[in-house]
Fold Transcription termination factor MTEF18, mitochondrial-like.
Amino acid sequence: MLIRGISKRASVITEMISQLNQMFLSPTIHCKPSTTCTPSFALLTVRCFRCSGPAHNTKLAHIEPTQTPISLTGNRISRVARTEAQVAFFDYLHCTRGFPFTDAEHISKNSPNFLQSLLSKVDTDQDVSRALSKFFRYHPVNEFEPFLESLGLAPHEFQSLLPRDLMFLVDDDVLLENFHLLCDYGIPRSKIGKMYKDATEIFRYDHGIMAMKLRAYEDLGLSRSTVIKLVSCCPSLLVGDVNDEFVGVLEKLKGLGFGSDWIGRYLSYKSVYKWNRMLDTMSFLTEVGYNETQMGVLFKMNPALLLEGSGKRIYILVCRLLKLGLKMNQVYALFLKNPQALSEKFAKNLWKAVYFLFEIGMDTAVIANIVTAHMQLLGLHTLKGPRTVWQSLEVDRYTLRQIIQEDPLKLISLASKNTKVVEQTTSRNPNRLLEKTTFLLSIGYTENSDEMAKALKKFRGRGDQLQERFDCLVHAGLDCNDVSSMIKQAPSALNQTKDVLERKIDCLRNCLGYPLESIVAFPSYLCYDMDRIIQRLSMYVWLRKRGAAKPMLSLSTLLACSDTRFVRYFVHVDPEGPAMWESLKTSLPSN
């Protein structure tokens, strides 16, 4: 009996060893009902380990990476958990670490990557607030990471900027003093990150130096709003003394009849400005024959000529046109007639057309005449290659040259890549279409694209009217690139008159007290009628004064919801709300 028992145990042990060998030394088999089982070698490298040496630690080292799918699932954090994490982080910064309320609120709401990292370290299925509070108690965080992220920098941008020997912001009082001074001056926090990245040394200034440098630019005759835009786009101006090259550009522009704040309207946060190159550009135009009046008109009609690329594009364009044999007065006339000529797409199409004409053997003088007469059409259309065209027509290059010489517009009808646009161009009102197309190209639409075709149908009005409405938003203080992005999201915003746009902006600022940048995140605000805007914003302001509504709610929350939802959450929350709502609807006309 004893022998039989021993042999039975031995067989059981043998079977267990066989199962273990199959588990760790064989590819895993994933079986599903009604499907064929196929071996998967995804975990083969993880499960194949040596039997020699200390096996326990080896198993841990190799099996640990297989937990990745669990962590990936954990990355899908619910909105509720994220909101709770923001509140817990705010409490930690404000109550535990003693951050000012506005700093703690901004950092907690504008550091999503850092919050994601925190949530990955706690169990999000439980009480997130309690879990994070406990985590903060035993794991102090590096406060520079969420701080820099909240200023608009991505993690890969600020990693090299993190101090090596500091974790707490309060330990860098010089940085905080300069940061708060910039905030108090009016520079948006989201733009300070770029300033810190591009000119870190300005945040090491002693007390009073930063304020003195900002005043120095105001002393040049610039308004505070222009100084804000200027130093946000070009923080290097705050390094050292007042930039002499910038002063030179400003004086040149004043001599051309521009006000001190003109330049601030067209600065972009996405561009890099070289003031010495701008000076060279203006000197170059003077040398090739432009007087101050002509140059002033040129820059007024096309500020990008000077500001985009700091004037680099003008050298290329002017030199190529002169090389074609055009006179300087002809070049000047072309710039005035086609102010969009310096846009990247327009210039590229134009020189492709010139290349096309050279390829078919056309004389330089004839090409110059075609460019002079049809520059706008050449710049708006992308052409096929000359060989493709003459082969499709089954003619040689010389026959094609003769066809185009007799009727230069044949170049567009025969060689354009987009036949739909060609048909539209030859419709009843080609000038109006070209004006509108020119405007759309100037705000970033791709020529000859489906997006362009749809936009031509959505925008109502002439090209100059659309440009006037666009300029209205830029002159109000919005960045040119932001306005372009807004218009693409909400095209009907430009289907309103300039007066209506100005009234809506005034309502946002004076009635609600919100910064103009609020509409960048919700451009549809400009599309709602004035009745809805005035009534709802006035109701919200009334609730806010009574402490019955949260401050700084988003515009989309206030305007995008249905009437029923708005009444439920913004009228019935106060006993006197319904009476106030009825009063507003009768006493606040939209006109």
Notes: DSSP finds 36 helices and two strands in the chain.
